[in-house]
């Protein structure tokens, strides 16, 4: 992957950044978990809530970079956001055992009453932005403050809409904070879903905890320390199964008799889905294999390091949505061909032409606003957003709500980039 700055004179720092990004892309090809060229983060406050205004207000320019904003959600509801910080005392952290019990930082987006709540929920902290940009070689190209100030459509302190809504779990890519899926989470919440996106400690560039501590990517170091590809794949399989344990614990805390979330009453525990990007997509299958409470899953461009069970997923539906270059039938990642054969319920295999690994995240939107482009993934930010939102929502509408979803029946004139595969 080579990134170019649109409409800006070349600078030595930019050249350095492009080289760093190319190296990270090469690592991504090896691990199936590329690092993005845009930002994300966890919010430090615990139990902060949020709702979506009709439009995103403009943020002030930061460091000469125009204000960034996520796309407007498409559903009828305003959006609230809470943050939960949870500790699983039954499990030590697999990447940092000396740190003690496994902990999770979870963003909850939910349908909220219009006009309730406080200010817009933050996208990330400046320090999280700095850590991520530094790892990607962009610290001298993109101001960290510009990323942290990206405008969301969720508001703190919002009151939920009465009712019971399906729950969707979201898991980000390896080395990537949960905030890179904020645009998708907000859109689903605006359509009437409760969405729980988790930061998995020690598996991203930086996770800021409520006490101010930062956790960096110990799991990345573990992958890097392996002597060969087989060793790396074994560690990445452990990442996927470990996330399955994270989400089973999270389901206990959201839908159990003593919920950790103040608005848990709006969750319908009989309708639960999961989607993930990159290794988070593999984790969707791993979680379904381990936990019957998850009714439907989506893998967005993730290699199946942890293969789907030979016996299938108990007839539950699964969608594979990926790049045309890497995940069409017969491509180098044979795990999708093998996974397809093992899926034993309703299933679809879709690829998107001109897309890249991060097409299914906030990266194209923020990158385009920053003047960054990837010639290897020429699909526009608008088309990336529309395609991802449309197919993810159609899948969950069909399988968690029982609604008609003709978009999933075959090629659609409105989305000519999307190919259906039935190998």
UniProtKB/TrEMBL annotation:
Residues 1-28 form the signal peptide. Keywords: Hydrolase, Lipid degradation, Lipid metabolism, Signal. SUPFAM superfamilies: alpha/beta-Hydrolases. The keyword Protein biosynthesis does not apply. One of its GO terms (biological process) is lipid catabolic process. Pfam families: PAF-AH_p_II. The keyword Hydrolase applies. GO terms for molecular function: 1-alkyl-2-acetylglycerophosphocholine esterase activity. PANTHER family: PLATELET-ACTIVATING FACTOR ACETYLHYDROLASE. This is Alpha/beta hydrolase.
């Amino acid at each position: 992957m080579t990134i170019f700055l649109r409409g800006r004179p070349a600078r030595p720092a930019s050249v350095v950044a492009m080289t760093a990004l190319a190296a990270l892309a090469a690592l991504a090809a090896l691990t199936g978990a590329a690092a993005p060229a845009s930002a994300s983060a966890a919010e430090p406050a615990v139990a902060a809530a949020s709702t979506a205004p009709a439009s995103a207000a403009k943020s002030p320019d930061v460091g000469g970079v125009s204000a960034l904003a996520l796309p407007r959600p498409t559903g009828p509801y305003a959006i609230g956001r809470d943050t939960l910080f949870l500790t699983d005392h039954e499990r030590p952290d697999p990447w940092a055992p000396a740190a003690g019990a496994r902990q999770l930082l979870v963003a909850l987006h939910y349908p909220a009453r219009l006009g309730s709540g406080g200010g817009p929920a933050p996208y990330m902290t400046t320090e999280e932005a700095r850590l991520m940009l530094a790892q990607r070689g962009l610290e001298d190209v993109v101001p960290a403050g510009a990323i942290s100030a990206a405008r969301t459509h969720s508001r703190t302190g919002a009151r939920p809409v009465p009712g019971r809504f399906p729950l969707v779990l979201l898991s980000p890519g390896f080395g990537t904070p949960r905030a890179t899926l904020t645009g998708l989470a907000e859109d689903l919440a605006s359509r009437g879903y409760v969405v729980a996106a988790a930061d998995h400690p020690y598996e991203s560039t930086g996770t800021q905890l409520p006490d101010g501590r930062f956790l960096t990517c110990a799991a990345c170091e573990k992958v890097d320390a392996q002597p060969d590809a087989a060793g790396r794949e074994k560690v990445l399989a452990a990442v996927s199964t470990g996330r399955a344990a994270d989400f089973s614990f999270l389901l206990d805390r959201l839908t159990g008799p003593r919920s950790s979330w103040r608005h848990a009453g709006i969750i319908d525990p009989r309708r639960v889905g999961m989607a993930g990007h990159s290794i988070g997509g593999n984790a969707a299958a791993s979680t379904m294999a381990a936990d019957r409470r998850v009714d439907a899953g989506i893998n967005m461009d993730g290699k199946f390091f942890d293969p789907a069970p030979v016996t299938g997923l108990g007839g539950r539906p699964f969608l594979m949505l990926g790049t045309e270059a890497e995940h069409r039938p017969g491509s180098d990642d044979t795990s999708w061909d093998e996974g397809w054969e093992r899926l034993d319920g309703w299933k679809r295999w879709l690829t998107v032409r001109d897309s890249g690994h991060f097409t299914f995240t906030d990266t194209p939107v923020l990158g385009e606003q920053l003047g960054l482009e990837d010639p290897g993934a020429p699909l526009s930010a608008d088309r990336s957003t529309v395609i991802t939102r449309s197919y993810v929502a159609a899948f969950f509408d069909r399988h968690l709500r029982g609604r008609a979803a003709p978009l999933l029946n075959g090629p659609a004139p409105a989305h000519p980039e999307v190919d259906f595969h039935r190998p």
